Amino acid sequence: MSEKYRAWFQCFEGCGERYELNEVIYRCRKCGSLLEVRHDMDALARRTPAQWKDLFAERWGAPMGPMASGVWGKREWVCPGVADSSIVSMPEGKTALLSASRLGESIGVPDLHVKLCGNAHTGSFKDLGMTVLVSMVRQMRAEGRDVPAVACASTGDTSAALAAYCARAGVPCVVFLPQDKISLAQLVQPIASGALTLSLDTDFDGCMKLVQEVCSRNNIYLANSMNSLRIEGQKTVSIEIVQQLGWQVPDWVVIPGGNLGNVSALGLGFEMMRDLGLIDRLPRVCCAQSHNANPLYRSFLKDFGRFEPLEAKKTLATAIQIGNPVSIWKAIRTLKAFGGVVEEATEEELADACALADRDGLFTCPHTGVALAALRKLAKRGEVARGERVVVISTAHGLKFPEFKVKYHARELEGIAGRYANPPVELPAQYDAVLSAIHERIGR
Predict the structure, then answer these.
(1) Alpha helix segments (H runs only) across 359-444
(2) What per-residue confidence (pLDDT) applies to 444?
(3) What residues does each domain of the chain span?
(4) Which of 5, 153, 301, 319 could cysteine-pair with 208, CB 3.0–4.6 Å?
């Protein structure tokens, strides 16, 4: 436990109300606004930027224990009040920042990097937030607080991460899933981890409404991103990116957006580095949405003058099929502070972007496809210049979406031609037939 550092919940809207991190609270009791975690920045500033960089570099190579985690290796900036004995970690974070120059060249952004957040224990970036949230729950239960269970609404990845971390901590877990709207690979994860898995005849927004009611009336701890403990873990992505680039800030970060907690998390990480002197500028941010679930994009077209929830339509990018995002105003604040933009991608654009990226060995999820398709549009119209350095956040592993991949290459996705489809070639088991197919492909 980092006793000389402090953090607390504070009202996002600025009414000044504060709450302790071990309280069961998600909204300000005074004005109803969402909360965010604030840190004692004066205490953090007693270390110089060089000292923070050296400390983070030293911890990066830790083989075991809390410091083996990319999140807890930055614990003073995240959740300093959690004791080592309460930390629940399956060392999350420290995911690769992959140079994708060949893919980048094909879309007009040669200095392209992809942050592979899906290379995590449960296969998505959600692990970064769940290690913080579940660790705090474990500490609260050790302190004697009545926290009978933890629950979330999910489009797949949140439930997988929460269920795994709760299983590790020995904490009961309940997940609310929209029936028939997530992949089989995502559905099986909470089931395998022992969570009570409720498959509900509604969409994500319906699940979100119901889980809030259940949690508020039964003292069950809510684990969705409106709980800003999640955001604290997710903000370490920004720090890792800059650290992996030799403490250089990229010109752009492109991130897919659904419930939009990850957009605000991204911003908080960069702002914290700037405020503590580790960087001297902020990147521009693009939030990418599916055309079929694009409430933030529609608001952006009106200069964020107003926001109108919508009923999200079916999209291949199932994790961001959300029409009424909880963290909308936090995300808008971030985009305004970062000179941000919002772009959308059609189903065909996101599917083709995935397939093109996979030709560079990435094996992307459909949500990363949304981000790559958005970047391609920004580059085509010159908003992202050819010489700029861009980082795309890949939020989940492609293996979570086998049906999407198989159907694309079989050209079985409705309304999608499959421009980059690569179906298997069926042949008789004969040398001449095999050699002919090889020669046809490699041109010899």
Answers:
(1) 366-380, 402-409, 431-442
(2) 64
(3) 97-123+230-409
(4) 153
The pLDDT of residue 7? 96
Backbone angles phi, psi at 282, to 5 degrees: -110, 150
**Residue 350 near residue 385 (C-beta atoms within 8 A):** no
pLDDT the model gives residue 390: 98
Retrieve residue 343's tokens. Answer: 């772009």
Which tokens hold the place of 1?
Answer: 């436990």
Quote the Cα angle for 307-310-313, to 5°: 140
Chain segment 287-325, per-residue pLDDT in tens:
999 999 999 999 999 999 999 999 999 999 999 999 999
| Of the candidates 366, 363, 368, the residue with the CA atom closest to the CA atom of residue 391 | 368
pLDDT digits (tens, 9 = 90+) for 343-382: 999 999 999 999 999 999 999 999 999 999 999 999 999 9
Taking 3-state DSSP, the helix, strand and coil percentages for the chain, each rounded to the nearest 5, stand at: 45, 15, 45
Residue-by-residue DSSP string for 295-327: HHHHHHTTTTS------PPP-S-GGG--SS-TT
SS3 58: helix
CA 314/CA 137 separation, integer angstroms: 34
Would the CA dihedral through 1, 116, 47, 53 be positive or negative? positive
CA angle centred on 324, ends 319 and 329, rounded to 5°: 105
* Model confidence pTM above 0.85: yes
| DSSP string for 401-412 | -HHHHHHHHTT-
Neighbours of 51 (CB within 10 A): 10
DSSP 14: S
Q: Three-state DSSP class for 239? A: helix
